[in-house]
UniProtKB/TrEMBL annotation:
Its EC number is 3.5.1.4. InterPro entries: Amidase_CS, Amidase_dom, AS_sf. It catalyses: a monocarboxylic acid amide + H2O = a monocarboxylate + NH4(+). GO terms for molecular function: amidase activity. Residues 82-531 form the Amidase domain. This is amidase. Belongs to the amidase family. The keyword Hydrolase applies. Keywords: Hydrolase. The active site is at 137 (charge relay system), 212 (charge relay system), 236 (acyl-ester intermediate). Residues 1-25 are annotated as: Disordered. Substrate binds at residues 186, 212, 233-236. The keyword Ribosomal protein does not apply.
Length: 549
């Protein structure tokens, strides 16, 4: 979708007000009316929905997607009942954490009625996702609906057709019940924009839900959705999944279709952006990938690699599974909760007979230099022009990633070629590094800490590293922060300025009870293997660990 060339004639504040009023009007159309949200909320709102919604709605929305889908596919529950329940819970989630750009009550309920009528007439579902509600990140285009990509200037941009991914999922029987918030520029590990404000973390409103798919992360954490679509070019699926304690997958590029989604970064193909799932369960991630890839999307989107979904991935039978642990990236050491989670999982894996070895970092600081030089090859001019068109102010993290980033420069053809060569050389070096260590997958942090305070998520390299390499990464919850156990070192000596700055951000009391998640990474096009290994690990050691901070 090209940038809007016409500046709006109204003040940006008026457009933001209209955006929020539109969102509120879609929620007001839900029947019965949404329960009133208490005027004064605690920092942790995860328990609030169950005090407001009726038992039937709670039962439906608390069910894991595998259980819910089975009930839908066998006719034990109607698509209409499920959709109505998720509309209610998504609306409540919006009142608690500000995670929606709009609810889709008429569209979703009409589709649910069609599916119910089909089931009654034919005695079978329309497809593998029959009646399953799916939430959608706002920049993924719906025919006839706005697609702002987080910019005030794009309020008048209307998508001409459904994005390819929506066409596939819709044909499989999915129901799209809401759209979720994104940040300005879509280049934050935070979700905040001048159109909708800040999306907060359900476990602590002083912390971020992550970004740029932070609306998805927060909504799914509150069970306003059990499966959602996010995108990732530097951590945008994995950051919110980790911060909000849900599951997320950044697939290998060119496996999941991206045609028809709004993405404003100039020269976006210099760093492959991907669409992928967030879910309340690992099953949800697998269901999404299998359904989309089994539709053979490459037949309609030629850029995609024609690799069918490999259901029969076999883990090693002649030797133990070998997992490498990246304890830190050689630049910034993770906070105590992350390190404790790594030790917990590593020790349990060893007890279960899995080989665990140290995975040494290989020049991760160089990876960020390459990646951040390729993110904005026009020097951020396109983003500046879009924001100048509306007069909206730069959000702090937009300014940080574009204006304050010394690697962001307008590149000549020769300079761009140089960075491409550096990228490919680094990818080859890392492949050889992986070969030397001989691991099946790498267990590593998702970030340098758990969910950070607002406007402080400035270290991307635990996720962006794998974007540069185009390696798939799955995020999963492990435990929760315990202020008594996750105590900072008394005499911390930072490896460098970034390490020292990150350590200053740690506040054990503030993050007490917040989810601690980790990431499992595999090599390019090993998406199925990553999910199979994670499933094996979860079965062997009982993830996530039940803890009461």
């Amino acid at each position: 979708m090209p940038p809007s060339k016409h500046a709006p004639k109204r003040p940006w504040q008026d457009i933001a007000k209209e955006a929020q009023e539109h969102r509120d009007s879609t929620i007001a159309r839900v029947a019965p009316p949404i329960p009133s949200i208490p005027p004064k909320l605690p920092k942790n709102v995860t328990s609030i929905p169950e005090t407001l919604l009726d038992p039937s709605t709670i039962s439906i929305t608390n069910a894991p997607p595998e259980e819910l889908l089975n009930s839908l596919l066998t006719g034990q529950i109607s698509a209409t009942a499920v959709t109505a329940a998720y509309l209610q819970r998504a609306a409540v989630a919006q009142g608690l954490v500000n995670c929606l750009t709009e609810l889709l009550p008429s569209r979703s309920l009409d589709r649910a009625k069609e599916l119910d009528a089909y089931y009654e007439a034919h005695g079978q579902p329309v497809g593998p996702l029959h009646g399953l509600p799916i939430s959608v990140k706002e920049h993924i285009g719906f025919e006839g609906l706005r697609c702002t990509t987080g910019y005030v200037s794009h309020w008048t941009n209307i998508s001409k057709e459904d994005a390819h991914i929506l066409q596939i999922l819709g044909k499989a029987g999915a129901i799209f019940h809401c759209r979720t918030t994104i940040p300005q520029t879509m280049m934050h590990l935070e979700t905040d924009s001048n159109l909708y404000g800040i999306t907060v973390n359900p476990y602590n409103s002083s912390l971020t839900s992550g970004g740029s798919s932070g609306g998805e992360g927060a909504l799914i954490s509150l069970r306003g959705s059990c499966l959602g679509i996010g995108s990732d070019v530097g951590g945008s699926i994995r950051s919110p999944a980790a911060n909000c304690g849900v599951y997320g997958l950044k697939p290998t590029a060119f496996r999941i279709p991206t045609d028809g989604y709004g993405y404003m970064m100039a020269g976006a193909d210099t760093v492959e952006s991907v669409l992928g799932p967030l879910s309340t369960s690992l099953f949800g991630l697998k269901l999404f990938m299998k359904t989309v890839i089994n539709s053979q999307p490459w037949l309609n989107e030629p850029a995609l690699i024609p690799i069918p979904w490999r259901e029969d991935i076999q883990l090693p039978s002649d030797r133990p599974l070998k997992i490498g642990v990246l304890w830190h990236d050689g630049v910034v050491r993770p906070h105590p909760p992350i390190t404790r989670a790594l030790h917990l999982v590593a020790s349990q894996l060893k007890t279960a007979g899995i080989e665990v070895v140290d995975f040494t970092p290989h020049l991760h600081d160089e990876a960020w230099a390459i990646l951040s030089s390729l993110y904005f090859p026009d020097g951020g001019a396109s983003e500046a022009e879009i924001m100048e068109g509306s007069g909206e102010p730069w959000r702090p993290l937009s300014k940080w990633i574009i204006k304050d980033n010394p690697c962001v420069k307008k590149l000549s053809v020769g300079e761009l070629s140089y960075w491409f060569e550096e990228r490919e050389a680094y990818r080859k070096e890392y492949a050889l590094h992986w070969n030397r260590l001989g691991v099946d997958a790498v267990l590593c942090p998702v970030g340098p800490g758990v969910a950070p305070k607002h406007n402080t998520a400035k270290y991307w390299s635990y996720t962006s590293q794998w974007n540069l390499l185009d390696y798939p990464g799955a995020v999963f919850p492990v435990c929760k922060v315990d202020k008594e156990r996750d105590v900072p070192e008394a005499r911390f000596k930072g490896m460098n300025g970034l390490d020292k700055d990150n350590w200053k951000l740690y506040d054990a009391k503030e993050v007490h009870g917040v989810p601690v998640s980790l990431q499992l990474v595999g090599r390019r096009f090993e998406d199925e293997k990553v999910l199979a290994i994670l499933e094996f690990m979860m079965a062997k050691i009982g993830l996530p660990f039940e803890e009461s901070p």
